[in-house]
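Take just one protein record:
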Amino acid sequence: MMKSSSSNLLPTLLLLLACTNAVWQRAAAHALFDREPSLELSEESSSLASSPMECTSIVALAFTADPHENSRRRAAEFEFVGMNDTNGSNNVGHGNLFAHYDEEGEMFECQLSNGWTLPIAATENQLNSLREKLNNGQLVSSVSTLPGMTVQWNPNNVDTITNGNPMENTIVTLPDGPWTFVPGNTHPSNPATQRSDDRRHLATYEGLKKVLVIRLIDVNGLVHPDPPSVMSDKIFGTYGDRFTMTSQFHACSFGKLTITNDYGIDMNNLESAPGVVEVPMNVDITAVDLKSGVRNQFVRATEAKLGRSLPGVFDHVLFVLEACYVGCGWAGYATVNGWLSVYHKQHYKSMAVTLHEIGHNLNLAHSGGIDDKEYSDHTCLMGNPWFQDDVGQMCFNPAKNFQIANAGAWYSTRYTLTWESGISEPNQWQGNIIGVADYGNNPQGLPIVVKLETGTDVDYFVGFNRVYGVNVDSKIAKDMVTITRAGNNGEGFNKSRMMAMLSDGQSYGFADWKGSGKILIVTVRSISKNTNPWYADVLLNFNGPPEPTPRPSNKPTPRPSNKPTPRPVTPSPTNKPTPQQATPSPSKKPTLSPGSFKPTTRSPSKKPTPQPVTPKPTTSSPSDEPTPFPSYKFTYFPATLAPTRECGDSICMPLESDLNCPEDCINIEFATYSGNIGAKGANGEVYFLL
């Protein structure tokens, strides 16, 4: 009986052991993926891929390229099964999934319901499709999610949390297309599943913004050399720095966005300086890519130090690292429409870089220039123009200004104008535009932006780039009218592109405007610089007669002479050759024979030259009216070829080269202009725009 009982207990013991092991595995999974220690295992009745692994929103990350390092996309190698492209093709096996980051475009992550983020591994076509949908508004970062995304994780990787990369080989793959994005489970439109500790903090442009700076210390003691007091001064101006992210946001918003380090909570003496907390973490920054899942460790270590979840009461959290060792090429990066940004080396104290990254938190996209490069609109902070301490007093371009004003922030919509040209009848608008720098000095209520409505989601925005005051460091198109193109109706995240920079008297034309087969001309009639404020007089002219040219002078030029000259002024040659002249005293040796005795000229013409070719004037007096039509050739670039500023302004201007201005023209990042073949990169390659 005892043997029989023992033998019957063995299966029971094995079953109990298996159950215990299953419970341990689930507990280990929770330790890795769930940041709420109070969560009971009994609450998790579904599989590991359910609630804790649910992708509640897709988060876009945008980067600032570091001009001092090479920047190129890295393809992460993964073993994968069932990777589906948007065209429905199914790739099985081993291939390149773009799960890491490209400084020339946005990358994407899955935000789990517990706050962890996982990289979305996408094919190149899928990545481009995500970017397209982000820029046209179908995908809203930190809000939208995509049903059918699959989490692929490594169950044997639980213990790698101590190595700083607990998400190794843990990725999210995308379903077959076509895609339909929906609000995530934490979006206010789905209150039934919204968590009380919503971890997103979506963009708002006004009010008091509580900003926290984290000075990270890696496992080997690597930490940024600037002490907390310097960091506090560079971000908040705590000890008198007058040019900071805090001061410039206050300036550009005209006091409507205020950065603060007064959090309204007891920080329990955690701050090493006002607004700065030092956080040690169990991560070796020399061995990991600081853009990958290791960022979860930045957050988790900070939460452990603070004793609270992030972002919590904080609107923006800036993580500062000593340096980048793996996967570099970036100066900073941030979550779009979110709260987190990361910096390394000196870049946190370049106020244009921090303004740029917090701009991404505020749902602003990059600003490209006429060359359509990712960051080359250097009239705008989202064009990545400066990498210097205390330089970066500038704001945003007309498209970004319209986006902010349309959200009811900073600039009243009373000072933005939308012009609808129509498509059949001639239509004109003429008015004055001021620059953002003069928004607070605008007694006449002039607009700062004119939107050219196209009837599609891609529109054009006209503004005056007045360079002084809050916008004194704008790098190009100084005191010129700019035309910028942006999608999403100018109302949300969308990369803009500068189309034209126009000076006094210059025009830009849109052929086949709105598909009408007719032309729209934007003309800068004048730029008034003797007024306060300065303004640009702009004419929008659709399908109408162009502006006439100025009246001619009152008097015609004098008549030419009526008769030709009577005879040529050169006398006729003689009929005979000139007699040979003997040398006064012969040389000891006979000289060479003289040259030809033939005449040096041919016979003269029989008749004098005809009447001069100068025609008579067409009229005896000037016309009463100016000429009706100017030329239809539009100026797309300023006509002046000579440099407008001196050597040493960090811009390789026309007629400057590596020979006469090496400090501007031999650089890693520079601006150049049409036809300027003197600009050289650091590798000696010659750059010019066609």
About this structure: The radius of gyration is 36 Å.
